[in-house]
Please model this.
Amino acid sequence: MSQGLSLSARREITKQSAAEYARAAKKDKGRILNDLVAVTGWSRANARRALSTALKRTTPVRKAKRKPRPRTYGYDTLTALIRVWRLAGTPSGKYLAATMGLWLPKLETLGELRNVRFSPEIRDQLMAVSGATIDRLLKPTRAGMAPKGLSATKAGSELRSAIAVRRAGQEHEQVPGFIEADLVAHCGPALVGEFARTLTATDVFTGWTENVAIRNSAYKWILAAMETVAERLPFPLTGLDTDYADLHVMPTFSYRSCSAG
Model:
């Protein structure tokens, strides 16, 4: 009967028999022990130890908590790694690990590591670090360097009340001539000062796209750019979707909708 029983099943059977075993007389203890041996396949000594253990345990068995491993690479090593990574052109961890033996001697000779705590121990760690570990250590630094998109437009209540808004999921026109246009600001990480923009106009049906560079977002430049787009298109411009508030007042075109945002 013991064939096919898992260890957890044997322990459960032992747990059920333990209370009865503790209350039983000496003669009955022998019977309970014999039954447990027959069911589990254990020896009498092993079954007796299992019953004693089950009686002592009052709470479920818990897995031992593993102590976290101490950090191999400290703050000084991370600072030096970031310095080398940036001077190397921010390569992948795999590439930097493969070329670390070339970078470290040159950067030390040129004095590029003077601003960080650099010791023979840190040099040895940088020489031994793997590409996967480099990527893991540099993950927060990479995330902080990622460019964040900026919106150069804002919703206008006057525009929303004057023009119907196309909703997501609504079907687009199945003929050429209905354009979606937007301005891309070439401002870098901040909307400060004057900077060039690109008016991008895309036909919804065909995917035909025209790009026109403009000096800034002044009305006259946008109007001139839209006229340039209309001249370049191989079909008449009959409708315009845009998120820029000034475009709806241009008299040259017929607008079907405008998405404010």
Remarks:
- The chain has a mean pLDDT of 78.
- Residues 7-23 form the longest helix (17 residues).
- DSSP finds nine helices and four strands in the chain.
- Residues 75-145 form one domain.
